[in-house]
Target: 1-acylglycerol-3-phosphate O-acyltransferase
Amino acid sequence: MRSCLTGRSGTKTSKVNYSSLASMSDGGVASTVETTTTAAAAATATATATTTNTNKRSLWPTVLRWIPTSTDHIIAAEKRLLSIVKTPYTQELVNIGTGPPGSKVRWFRSASDEPRYINTVTFDSKEGSPTLVMVHGYAASQGFFFRNFDALASHFKIIAIDQLGWGGSSRPDFTCKSTEETEAWFIDSFEEWRKAKNLSNFILLGHSFGGYVAAKYALKHPEHVQQLILVGPAGFTPESDYQNEWFSRFRSSWKGAVLNHLWESNFTPQKLVRGLGPWGPNLVRRYTGGRFGSHAQGNKLNDDESTLLSDYTYHTLAAKASGELCLKYIFAFGAFARSPLIQRAPEWKVPTSFIYGVQDWMNYKGAQEARDKMDEKVPCEIIRVPQGGHFIFIDNPDGFHSAVLHACRRFLSPDPDSQSLPEGLTTA
Model:
């Protein structure tokens, strides 16, 4: 089953293809039901299709639930947030099947043989525009790029996804027991999504943990990635790197020991949100209002943006635990990578641009060390954007857009070598 929703101002078109799972896998012809509806009806159609995919529809009214969310709520909240975006878009659930080709197990040892889906939004673009695929970070979803879609869609064909186990994508039971299995969860599911979308050459942008996944994917499948853009990427610092004296002391304290135990027990921030039940939305509102409002490191969200992002964030965090449980297998306490990217730097084959906010808590020096270990023939640059931290694309969207356009100058300019670094940006 694939659900498609075209987002535009005014009325919207919802197209839902109904077919058996067998006919899809065998290339059978699906019957098509096409209706023109209002935005609200279109959202309901999409949410219904999504809920059918996961086979998890709650019969309880929202006000009577301890955790007031559902798959329906995620898709509806996504639509409300993306209503800010002026560029028309199509939302679809892309079928990635039941498991990797040739595998004797279903997706990630799942007990279910149902197909899985990757929630995908594709924005209208000029014919011939280069394709830019955007991958979100940990505890986020593709909607976090809502301030960037309009500006970037004027230069690229933008495709943004929710990684498997996040946002509006399927949320299989997480049964990985090692770093290798956990990386495969994200890399192999992304590869099946690429095949389903019939993409062969694209620019891949990943933020934070999404940058880690994007880099690992490019190492495994460099033939598909034209350019890699890593925005505040996680995963370069090895677990053994304890150069920060303050952190070393904290780790050895009783507080550090408690937090380390919680980390190794896979206690995630999302569990706290779920545990608070009906008080969870207020906690998320306070965080969003503080991080991107009163304590913003750059361009503050306005009231409408803050309300819509808070609502969207709550529903994506409070839904069934799945991809979030990767945390302890990818990182040790302190966000030190168990399989650090810096160790793979000599194998790097894809031209890479690192983008960091000047106030980003992710240390750009890890990118510098990786660049030093890369083959000199592989283009690599580090761009720092002022007035912003880890979420530089929200804090300073204009600066972020300038950095992305500069990173992709060889796809956008007939004379890329003549393009100087935009004013305000610095290199490292």
